[in-house]
Amino acid sequence: MVKEIIKYPQTPSIEFNAPVRFFNDDLFNLIEDLKDTIKENNLKALSAFQINNPYSVIVIKNDDETYLELINARILKSSDKITTKEKTTYFGDIEVSITRDKHITIVYENRDGKQCYLDCSDEQAVLLQRKIDYTFGANFRQRLDEAGIEELDMKLEYGSDTIVNNSCPTVFNRDKILKAINVMLALTLIVVLSKFFISEDLISSIDRGLNYSFLTILTLVMIYPIYAYYEGKKYTNCMSCQIGNIIGVGLFHLFKLFIVYMIFVFV
C-alpha cells in the first residue's frame, strides 16, 4: 500500500530507531508498503521512519528494478571523506552540500533474520548513509555546520533552492539613483543661485526649467525606496537592506529637495 511520505515542516509522530525483533507478516507488509511508495513516487530508497513507522527498515531500489531490504542496518566502518550535493524527500527540491564517507561497510539483517554485510562506495554509500540517518530520527540538517544550517533554513523560508549571493555588496544599483539625485540637486542649486547674476528677461525661462528639474528629482526620490526595497530582497543578510534604512535615506533626500525648493521660492 502506498503511504504518505513525511515532508517538511511535518514531524513524524512516532519514536525512532525501534529494532526489528519479529520477522513476521507485519514486517513483510511494511517492506511492501515501502516498495509501493518508492514506485509511486519514483524514488531510489525509503526508510520506514519516512512513512511514520518507527522500525529500523530501509528499502533500496536497484537499477534492475529489484529491491534491497535492510533491517536493523548499522555502519561498521567507513573511510575517505567526500563532499556531496544532496537532496532528500523530506526537504523537497532543496539541495545542500554534505560531508559523507566515500566507502562504508554495513551490517544488517534480511527478511529471514540472517545477518548480512554490504560494502559500498560513492553514490550507494551516500544514499545508505542518508537512509540510516533516518532510522535514528535524523536528516541531513543535523550534519550541516552552522553556516550550512543557516543557508538551508533560508532556502526553506523562501521555498526555493535558488538563493542569490547574500553577502552585502559594497555598491548597490540603487546608489546610482542617489548619485543622480545628488548631482541634479547640486546643479539645480547652482542654477537657482545664478538668478542673482542674470537679467530679468531670462529668469522666467530659467524658472520653467527649474520646475521641470524639481519634478524630475521628486520622481527619482519616489522611485528610490521602491527600487531599493526590490534590490534589497536579493541580499537578505545585509543590514543596509532593511526597510527602515531605505525609507530614512529617501526622506533625507526629500528634505534636501525641500530645502533647495525653498531657496528657489524665496530667491
Description:
The chain has helices at 25-41, 122-135, 146-158, 174-194, 200-232, 243-266, and strands spanning 45-47, 57-61, 67-87, 95-109, 115-121. The chain has a five-stranded antiparallel beta sheet. The longest helix has 33 residues, at 200-232. The mean pLDDT is 86. Helices cover 46% and strands 19% of the residues. With 267 residues, the protein is of the alpha+beta class. It starts with 24 loop residues before the first helix and ends with a helix. α4 runs antiparallel to α5 (200-232) and α5 (200-232) packs antiparallel against α6. It has two domains: 25-158, Peptide Deformylase (Alpha-Beta Complex), CATH 3.90.45.10; 174-266.
Compact overview of the structure:
With 267 residues, the protein is an alpha+beta fold.
Write the layout of secondary structure elements.
Blueprint: H1 25-41, E1 45-47, E2 57-61, E3 67-87, E4 95-109, E5 115-121, H2 122-135, H3 146-158, H4 174-194, H5 200-232, H6 243-266
Antiparallel strand pairs: 1-2, 2-3, 3-4, 4-5
Characteristics:
rod-shaped; 5 strands; 46% helix; five-stranded antiparallel β-sheet; Peptide Deformylase; 6 helices; alpha+beta; 267 residues
The poorly predicted ranges are none
Shape: rod-shaped
* Count of the domains: 2
User: What is the residue-mean pLDDT, rounded to a whole number?
Assistant: 86
Kindly report the CATH topology of the largest domain: Peptide Deformylase
CATH superfamily of the largest domain: Peptide deformylase
Strands side by side in the biggest sheet: 1-2-3-4-5
How far apart are the first and last residues' alpha carbons, in Å?
85 Å
Question: What's the helical proportion of residues?
Answer: 40-55%
Structural class: alpha+beta
For the secondary structure, the number of strands is 5
